[in-house]
Amino acid sequence: MLLSAVGETLWDENEGLIDVVTATSGSGPAYVFYLVESLAAASVAAGMDEKAAMQLARSTIIGAAGLMEASDVSVSELRRKVTSPNGTTAAALDVLMAEDGMARSLRRAVRAAKDRAGELAKG
Q1: How many domains, the chain?
Q2: φ/ψ (deg, to 5) at 11
Q3: How far is Cα of residue 11 from the mean position of the Cα atoms in its chain?
Q4: pLDDT one-digit tens code per residue, 91-120
């Protein structure tokens, strides 16, 4: 397949999912970049130098992406493997995984992008 030369491809007979694909994969890089910005800003707010905070945030995302690419286990399992029970990561995940946390925000973001893609398709 021609597109596989530039990245991973996914085939689905349901063309109605194109707006979800756009909202997830097309807009997804911006979500990741914003995560890096937000993680760095949170580190600065906690007292870290801005340049160091950005370097750590970028390196963290790049390293995590490398682990995902190199591993055959699910991302949920990778998350569990890097989370010590009752440790610092677990404390942070309690916040991010709360009912009003990251998953809810991402559902709203993907829905907004999907809806906008549908509007743009209609012209």
Answers
A1: 1
A2: -115, 130
A3: 22
A4: 999 999 999 999 999 999 999 999 999 999
